[in-house]
Each structure stands twice: as C-alpha cells, then as structure tokens.
Amino acid sequence: MIRLLLALALTVTALLVPAPAHAEPTHVRLDGVDVRLPEGSRQVVTVNHTAGYRARITFWALTGDGWAARMRATDGRIGYGGLVVGHRRRQNTGTTPTGTYALPWAFGMHERDDAWKLRYRQVRRGDFWVQDNASAYYNRFRNQRQGGFRWWLPGSDPNASERLTDYRRQYEWSIVIGFNAGQVRHRGSGIFLHVNGRGATAGCVSAPRPFVARLMRRLDPDHRPVIAIGR
Q1: pLDDT tens digits, residue range 16-50?
Q2: Has residue 189 been placed in a domain?
Q3: Which residues does the UniProt record annotate as the domain L,D-TPase catalytic (predicted)?
Q4: Range of the domain at 183
Q5: Residue 93, SS3?
Q6: Is residue 120 part of a domain?
Q7: φ, ψ for residue 5, nearest 5 deg
C-alpha cells in the first residue's frame, strides 16, 4: 500500500513539472510575417511590407491565450531600396533586411525616462554610428573623441559614418535592431527602429512618433523582444 501511494505521489508530481523551455515553438506567423523566436521571447514587433516603402508595424505580447496585438501603426516605413534577405544585404543600397533580429537597446535625444527598461544612451555632441569598413568599430556607437574610425569623411564617401545629431527628428528615440551584430564588412550598419522622417528610410524601419514613444515604455529585455521584417 505504501509503495502504491508513493508511486501515485510521484506520478502527480511529474504532472506538475513545467514543460521544458525547448518545448516552446521556435517559429510563429504573426500578421503574415514569419517570426523566429528565441527561447523565452514574449515580445515581438512585426514589419509587414504593404506597398512601396510603406509597412504595417505591430507590437505583440505573449499572453496565456497566445500572441496578442497590443499596438499597430499603418504608416510604417522601410528603406527606399525595398526589402532584401539579410545575408544578401549590401551597404549603401537603401535596402531593409528581412528576418528576425533582437531589439537589445536604444538611444535618443532625451534624458533617460525611468519608465524605460531597455538599456539606453543619450546622444551627445560627436556621437556617430560607425559605417567605416576599415574600422574595428564598424556597426557600433562611438564618439569621435574616442577615435578608431574616420569620422571626418564626407557623406558622399562610401565609408562615411552617421553623425547622430544630424537626425534629431528621426532619432528622437531609436531602438537598435541587431542586424549584422557580427560586423560583416560591407553588409551594412546602423539599422534601427526609429521615428518617421519625411519619406522612406535609408534601410531602417520607422514608425509614427507616438508609436515609437509608447514602444519605448513597453519593451522589456527580460521578455527578449525581437523584430521580424517580412513581405
């Protein structure tokens, strides 16, 4: 009898053990966009190309009932060169890479808001996003005083870096997209989710100012947020 009760207890205990992490789906399709989910991801931004340089951008959260759309912007933008598969992208082509990428941190023109959970850096004078293919800091945020890249190159040069203060409107809030984190030269750098400008982007994803402002308050690194860009 004791052995039987012990066996029953062990069976009940086994039923109460949570499913292992690898049992979670690794792919999901949201608003027509394929998303590759990292383990533990509970927040997704989808970018669904609609026409021209326009896109529908949706913020999703994982709930007990599945993925729920929390915010949507129909006036999103992509690059003037359209979409291209991420590993085929080339620098200075105005293309936006398709695929799923992390949203690890953000920068912008304002002081940090206590409501933001993402790591954040306020832009200062002399801050650049390095696009110099000869630099060890390619596809990195760096100040010209730190050196290590040719910040003085004119904008017409293919290795010219981006002076962040030149884009105060677009980079009021800018969420870094983890494209080309491995610094593959000539693949492209500085792909962000930022505030809309007047038209298409140079390869980034952009959305209306209110959408980005709200997104800054919702993204949580503990939920491993990602962005999925599709057609």
Answers
A1: 323 334 445 699 999 999 999 999 999 999 999 99
A2: yes
A3: 62-226
A4: 22-230
A5: coil
A6: yes
A7: -65, -40
